[in-house]
Design goal:
It is a single chain. The chain is α/β, with parallel strands linked by helices and about 500 residues long. The chain folds into three domains: about 5-280, HUPs (Rossmann fold); about 285-430, Isoleucyl-tRNA Synthetase, Domain 1 (Orthogonal Bundle); about 440-490, no CATH class. It contains 16 helices and 15 strands. It has helices at about 40-60, 85-95, 100-115, 130-145, 160-165, 180-185, 225-240, 250-265, 300-305, 315-325, 335-355, 370-380, 385-405, 410-430, 440-455, 460-475; strands at about 5-10, 15, 25-30, 65-70, 145-150, 155, 200-205, 220-225, 240-250, 270-280, 280-285, 285, 330, 475-480, 485-490. The strands form five sheets. It has a four-stranded parallel beta sheet, with helices on both faces. Helix 4 packs across helix 7 (about 225-240). The longest helix has 21 residues, at about 335-355. The protein starts with 5 loop residues before the first strand and ends with a strand. The mean pLDDT is about 90.
Length: about 500
């Protein structure tokens, strides 16, 4: 099949053919979570999107090094250069060590990503584990005249950088912001008087006596700025120039803009060839996030344990919900949208199960090749998972036609159909049937559902409902549909 992968590059603001710097190797970096609270939908979206990217590049035969970091220090309140470290603040509230906070929420993040069938990255570095690399990078920026030290803190000098890299290389290249406009609109904040101008951002902050997390440096005890962490870690594991850097749209400015400036100041190059950004998930039109106080954790979704939620939603329902929209579009959360996603996912999985039981015919009445190419075209078009899913639903109608003998595929074509349904559904989109793989549980549930079916045939609906309700209490959801009765764990 013809493969011509195109990626929307936030740097050029257009789709570009994907051409790795050093094929068949691909280096990609995703800004991971700041681990001071449970993961929510806003964390799930970039993790799932980059998981699809990781899966697809490997499917195409590339050797991918995927780095996704853990931010465990230096991310201050409101993403500013003043205020309390988010993790240290949580540690004080809980009266525990900051690294206990880090370990607890990192473990929870890994648990939730596993539930969502997100593959582990190749490398998962932590900011606190790379202080030496960050200090060395800061020293290089100072040496090149684009940072300055004041009373134990080091700041990036945006105007000095802009004077050196004028034209299209200047500060604001990623976000499209104009430095003169930023200077006119950025107000002076309390505690930032030591900066030369309001746009400068911290590379290293002097630790106040009460600051818990601190490390020795050439400028005294302190801690790294938020932006320098990703620059140092991506450079260490992927080199000064790598293929893909991504994250949420909210990181485009100032975080990713700062990364570009830092890397160019230290190494002379923009660190990534392609910059990719997921758009926001919103609640009532507002960004969903911990800092805004409107986040629903993934665990709450899985358990239905939140006042806004009408029911529990399985991890695959959440993954399907996110994949139903293109990653660059805004998605607004609602129970109605999630219930629709649940129905769509169950319809797909039901057909997928039926496909594996279909027997081949003597001839083919379906031309698979245009469908396969169309599905590849969708994913090659800047990872348009929404269009790919529409082609999977087209395949669902064929599956029911095959099952009812209205359509037919010869043995070779049936094997091809099964292969590509698995490729698109499991290998690329990462969707899987959530029924337990435990065969004894499968057999027991089949027995119970068969008995329930007989009870319903005898019009004993009270007993039928009682079986359904008792199973629900035990963590099993029963779903009656046109194709029969199915079940799933909740």
């Amino acid at each position: 099949m013809d493969q011509n992968l195109q990626i929307f590059n936030s740097l050029s603001r257009k789709k570009e053919d994907f051409k790795p710097i050093n094929p068949p190797f691909v280096g990609m970096y995703l800004c991971g979570p700041t681990v001071y609270g449970d993961a929510h939908l806003g964390h799930a979206r970039p993790a799932i999107m980059f998981d699809v990217l990781f899966r697809y590049l490997r499917h195409l035969g590339y050797k991918v090094r995927y780095v996704r970091n853990i931010t465990d220090v230096g991310h201050l309140e409101n993403d500013l250069d003043e205020g309390e470290d988010k993790i240290a603040k949580k540690a004080k509230l809980e009266q525990i060590e900051p690294m206990e906070v880090v370990q607890y929420y990192t473990d929870n993040y890994h648990r939730d990503m596993k539930s969502l069938n997100v593959l582990s990255p190749s490398i998962e570095p932590s900011a606190s584990g790379h202080i030496i690399e960050q200090i060395k990078m800061i020293e290089a920026i100072i040496q090149h005249g684009m940072a300055y030290e004041v009373e134990g803190s080091v700041y990036f000098d945006v105007l000095a950088y802009d004077a050196k890299y004028k034209g299209q290389e200047r500060y604001g290249i990623l976000s499209g912001r104009i430095i003169e406009d930023l200077l006119n609109t950025t107000r002076e904040l309390d505690g930032q008087e030591e900066k030369r101008n309001t746009l400068d951002f911290a590379l290293w902050k002097k630790a106040k006596p009460e600051h818990i997390m601190r490390w020795p440096s050439p400028w005294g005890d302190g801690f790294p700025g938020w932006h320098i962490e990703c620059s140092a870690m991506s450079g260490k594991y992927l080199g000064e120039k790598f293929d893909i850097h991504g994250g949420g749209m909210d990181l485009l400015f100032p975080h990713h803009e700062g990364e570009i400036a830092q890397s160019r100041a230290a190494n002379g190059v923009n660190p990534a060839k392609y910059w990719m950004h997921c758009n926001m998930i919103t609640l009532d039109g507002k960004k969903m996030g911990k800092s805004l106080g409107n986040a629903i954790s993934l665990e709450q979704f899985f358990k239905g344990d939140h006042p806004i939620l009408e029911q529990a939603y399985t991890p695959m329902t959440i993954r399907f919900f996110i994949l139903q929209a293109h990653y660059r579009s805004t998605v607004d959360f609602s129970n109605e949208a999630l219930i629709a996603a649940e129905k769509g996912f169950n319809r797909l999985m039901s057909a997928y199960e039926i496909l594996n039981k279909i027997e081949a015919g003597t001839e083919s009445t379906i031309n698979l090749h245009p469908w396969i190419q169309n599905a590849y075209d969708a994913i090659n078009d800047d990872f348009n998972t929404a269009i790919l899913i529409s082609y999977l639903f087209e395949a669902c109608s064929w599956i029911h036609g095959l099952n009812e003998k209205r359509l037919s595929l010869n043995p070779t074509d049936l094997d091809t159909f099964k292969k590509y349904m698995m490729v698109f559904t499991e290998d690329i989109l990462g969707l899987k049937n959530e029924k337990s793989a435990n065969s004894s549980e499968e057999g027991l549930m089949d027995l119970i559902l068969n008995l329930r079916m007989k009870v319903r045939a005898n019009k004993d609906f009270a007993t039928s409902d009682e079986i359904r309700d008792r199973l629900l209490e035990l963590g099993y959801a029963i779903k009656d549909g046109k194709e029969g009765t199915g079940w799933g764990r909740i």
